Amino acid sequence: MKKLINAAETVLEDALAGVAAAHPELAVDVANRVITRAVRPTAPKVALVSGGGSGHEPLHGGYVGPGMLDAACPGEVFTSPVPDQMLAAAKAVDTGAGVVFVVKNYTGDVMNFELAAELAAEEGVEVRTVLVNDDVAVEDSTWTAGRRGTGATVLVEKIAGALAERGAPLDEVAALGERVNAASRSFAIALTAATVPAAGKPGFELADDEIEVGVGIHGEPGRRRERLRPARELVAEVVETVLTDHHLTAGDEVIALVNGLGATPLMELYIVFGEVAARLAGHGITVARSLVGNYVTSLDMAGFSLTLAKADGQLLELWDAPVDTPALKRA
Amino acid sequence: MKKLINAAETVLEDALAGVAAAHPELAVDVANRVITRAVRPTAPKVALVSGGGSGHEPLHGGYVGPGMLDAACPGEVFTSPVPDQMLAAAKAVDTGAGVVFVVKNYTGDVMNFELAAELAAEEGVEVRTVLVNDDVAVEDSTWTAGRRGTGATVLVEKIAGALAERGAPLDEVAALGERVNAASRSFAIALTAATVPAAGKPGFELADDEIEVGVGIHGEPGRRRERLRPARELVAEVVETVLTDHHLTAGDEVIALVNGLGATPLMELYIVFGEVAARLAGHGITVARSLVGNYVTSLDMAGFSLTLAKADGQLLELWDAPVDTPALKRA
């Protein structure tokens, strides 16, 4: 295992120390493992809180800031944060307008956020939960009942975050988050496996010419293994898989995210994006907005995921709204 | 070789097609291999043009936009662009106020940009060249006479770009670019080698526990190979090496860039940054501004580079100025 770490046991606290040093615009509570905005909103607003295992950076701490999240709760690598973290985060950022939990659909995360919502309610914090389950690869997986939550998380956090920033009420923000999730579908391909520091070796083995089609962001198995093919062929399969599930048709507009899983050069992500745009154009579908880069990673996994969200006027307008976070900025 | 490409021969044109599709705010001339801003400045201003081999994305195309570059010329992977590209770029963006070429110190790049400057002068475009040579690892290297140009390129392009955007004259913009380069020092460590698509195999071999100390962004040899050590120890050596060369002392402020070489998880870069900040604090040196992420990459190389620029009021004020490019944004 080759990693830039001090020790497997201190990966999370050392990374949080770095986030704190790099981002004076964030407040990092290392003891409670909660990241919030250094400057709190002055007027009451619905607060967005997310969290999940570490190893998916910039998710979620990189999306804390005006226009997006109010707080993030990082767990240990590929491990759900605990309810106490989520409760501490909810209490820290609630302005009286309530809190929306954005939760990726993994069994541990779902259970812990549910418990945290109950604890928060007991302390007078009203909570709604938006479950993200956009990955069309498999119905159930290693750590999941139902579909896994992946790239759509960024879209939910950005778009619902923009609405919350404008002062919309709790139920409206939560409903919009659910609408963004329902409008989104994702699919991923891995070229290599990620290595969790505490495990010390890759989570699975792939031959030199082999890929995992439909992989999860913790290395969960996908649909099958096959030979690596040219990017154009891989993208064709990924796009068709997403479109089939999504029922998108000619004339539709999408927000497209081509996401690197951590170890894929940006040059290759642009090659993939070019093929995605061309393939969608062939279907008469327009890419109205896009992101290309590392947004929901899986440590040092090579590969990519595609997320397509069916766009409409409201989603695009909120997508374009100002945001100022470490990983996503727009004036 | 596991890469998301169509064919080694079409990597650059396929990546440019992706850049064009993803960034309507850029104009991509695929035939001439020149990336410019889609919306040109309305008032005359000094134009900044950079370029170099591909495989270092987001360098340079990702830094084209208001507040930074006017044009970028991407060469084939790890190969200098040709004078015709640079000339086409200079002519496309010159408003009559002249052009600054930002050139990383590699023999091919230096020769080709020199020739382009002569050709441009013959066509009435006044050119100044800022040479970037911030890498303290080695004096001469595989492709270089003198020191290699690496992470400081981002700082030169950002800070000189901000001054150009304000309407400063040609000699002043070029002088500031040289001042930023002179204020900057870098040093890099590789955990793995990059694979150039046309070569099909890694540029060098490292054992499972081995690192290259002082590596270049094309995999050029550094100072030595040694065993991988904890991040804190590696950072201590890198910081001390840079400080010794830089003559920084207690009370100094720096702009610090902790840069991933392409395949290093962001979580690890934050761990490295935390150690850098702590080590500098031990010397009484303050990190006034920072960047943590993939800014000057080397395809799929794992590792990091550290760039420290001695800051002052003017540099910080221009660093903070608005910028709107694919890879660097600030309101």
Automatic annotation (TrEMBL), chains A, B:
Keyword Repressor: no
Keyword set, alphabetical order: Kinase, Transferase
Gene3D superfamilies: Dihydroxyacetone kinase, domain 1, Dihydroxyacetone kinase, domain 2
Molecular function per GO: kinase activity
Domain DhaK: 7-328
Name of protein: Dihydroxyacetone kinase subunit DhaK
Top-level taxonomy: Bacteria, Bacillati, Actinomycetota, Actinomycetes, Kitasatosporales
